[in-house]
Amino acid sequence: MGQQESHSEEMDLAQIQDLCIIFMRECPSGALHLHEFKRIFGIPSTSEEESLYIETIFHSFDTNKDNALDFMEYIAALHLILRGNLEDRLKWSFKMYDKDGNGRLDRQEVKRIIRILYKIKLQKSDVSLTPSEICDRIFDLVDANHDGQISLSEFMEGAKKDEWVMNLLKLDVNARGWVIQNCGKLP
């Protein structure tokens, strides 16, 4: 079993290496801008939902808010997407939901992401709830003190205790799959 885990880890490291090479080739200036990020991940300009999702991802990794990812931000993003543990992925998801950066999620912020997710993956699933109903259910299950906002600790606890909430909150629209699939597409 240990050998399989080691081989799997080596594959992830090789994929990260390939993506680093792509970064250096595509961004010799050392800065990756949103349009380049979309191109690397193969996001068509005609897909509004995927475009909004990738923009949200991009801005969540732009830690210095200069509208570009430097090499360190890019590496941190790859590490989280390809190898991050559940707690780190949940913290990242919270950051993506928290558009105003105040450390608390209100209904508008949650509905914004749910609408994007709904258009990308939930419409095609067996979920019969609307984005507003999904948001209400999340708040019912996660907002422990019923103050109309979700703190990071409520977010983490709520996700860990309810699988349905976990699947929605962790924002897994197969970002890892996108990375792996598009890793080999560029020359």
Rough outline: globular
Write down the overall mean pLDDT.
78
Helix vs. strand class: mainly alpha
Helix percent reads: 55-70%
Distance between the termini: 35 Å
Q: Main sheet, how many strands, which sense, barrel? A: 2 strands, antiparallel
Topology readout:
Blueprint: H1 2-26, E1 31-32, H2 34-40, H3 48-61, E2 69-70, H4 71-83, H5 86-97, E3 104-105, H6 107-122, H7 131-142, E4 150-151, H8 152-161, H9 163-169, H10 175-183
Helix pairs in contact: 1-4, 3-6, 5-8, 6-7, 8-9
Description of the molecule:
With 187 residues, the protein is mainly α. It is built from 10 helices and 4 strands; from the N terminus they run αβααβααβααβααα. It has helices at 2-26, 34-40, 48-61, 71-83, 86-97, 107-122, 131-142, 152-161, 163-169, 175-183, and strands spanning 31-32, 69-70, 104-105, 150-151. The radius of gyration is 17 Å and the shape is globular.
Brief write-up:
With 187 residues, the protein is mainly alpha-helical.
